[in-house]
Amino acid sequence: MHLKKWLVMITAVLSIVSIGGYHWTDKSNQAQAKETEKISESFTAASIQFNPVLNERDKNIEELLKVTESALKKGAKLVVAPEMATTGYYYENREAIKPFVDTIPGKTTNAFEKLAKKYDAYIVFGMAEVEEETNVYYNSAALVGPEGFVGKYRKTQMWETETHWAAWGDLGVPVFDTKIGKIAINICMDSAYAETARLAGIQGAEILAFPTNSSAQAISALPARAQQNGMYVVSANRSNTENGFHMIGGSAIWSPEGKKLAEAPVVMTPNEDVNESTITYAKIDPKLYDNENKEALERRRPELYKELMHTVAPWDYTKNTTSHKVTAAALQYEPVLGNKEKNKQKIVQLIQQAKDKNPHLNLVVLPELSLTGPVEGLKKKNVKRMAETPEGETAQFFTDLAKQYQVSIVYGFIEKSGKNLYNSAILLSSDGSNAGKYQKTHLSKKEKKWAMPGQALPVFETEELGQVGILIGEDAEYPEASGVMAVKRADIIAIPSAWNGQYGGEMEINKVISANPYPKGSMVTWDSVAIGAQAYTIVSNYIGTEKKFLGGSSLYTLDPLYALDQPAVASSNKEEAFIVEFETLQPAAWFNQEMLILSRQPAYFKPIIEE
Question: Which residues are catalytic?
């Protein structure tokens, strides 16, 4: 085991958080962790879709205790209840919520501790916290277990409503070592920022408890957060309406692969409100705590993520402020592996088809290693024979195409630079000029046999398209990469790919959650890039061959959930120039890249960029 991983485990056991000079130590959890034996068999987790009554704290606690006990009686060893479960959610200001806050630990946690001890189980629930020393309020969640109070989390990324009465969370994302696994907590809007769950993942969290009051956005991000960090996610939402704010239910439990294990009913309109509690159960298997997605965390590149600590706002004179209408074609074809000439023919035919179909075409994106196809399995000396400089035959071919069809082009090639080889991509402007080059930074295990990793995550400024970032293949697995591009204000992210299922998977969120439905074949990883960076994302992928490429070339957008725009996905097995249209920048949208940058809390992201 790596030394770094040992240090992470030790930190998690001690449950010590140190952020910005503030230290919080949960001594009860330290003592408990030393004497606890880990559970090895599968156990039941329960998500309680509980609907508190506003301003009725005591009655809410009494009722939540009853519902929690009913789940515990059925054998649940972990129970998660919603955000602000003891008070209701909407409060106008500090005075309005003042009668209903409590300390953590305090009277509220004491009541739940008794249940946890009685049933030898763990309980997570959201509540309004008052810090005794300062009289500052927080939107918090508490974790109690058989040994008593275990720890708390204060919401890091708040939504507008609670900012009128609560302070931003100041504890970071602690991970608590328990006998059922390492448990972290995020709350609702936290999930819109990949960094919040990542803070749990890099500390070894195996379960993310997720209290929420969500109308769609927060719960739709959860399969990506589970998959990106290789951890179970247990979410608990409400299913009714409070002061005009409708929460859609859909409480769910997700596997470390981002697979839906169980889900409560989704209620999309106030007419469907369910005020009664709903309990959803699923099994959690500790044998799956170690998994491929968790292993991928070891391949992160923290040295490349430093810009995640920046907040270039509200003043940023480098960002693009002009929207661009883009008609793009993602070229999807079956590569003739190693045969540049035959692949050239396919590419010319597809671009001609696209231009004939839509004369306004102004961007073409191709799969990675566009003329050779993927080279995994080949010896390095054979890969080297196909390598070129950025001014070689491949560059000239695409330069001529850009000029001929007056389109910008993103293409991939095996780059030769001195003795080194790179999996690279180039962005050409419509006049054939080179607007930028990117070298893949997150290599697969097979690529490491022949390629060197790139050392930067650039965003390229263009007159025709605005600001464009490029990720290649496995880069998309790492939300830090697209996060850096958001900080650098990418309007568009192009992803040349060679995907045959080696990461990611089909989206499994309930289809009714999104006002503009996701097409069949939508891929959770690529969608997470677009929404997480608030940048329109175009993916070009191969089909076929003995490697069984899965197609699905696509456009992922900023906000289909609330009907701003519409994702589009190509077939899994058809050669085509898949054409999509969109307009960059959405300044009037309720959530956009500007809002993302202004609301991030990078002071707590430092562990993500530490090497």
Answer: 83, 155, 188
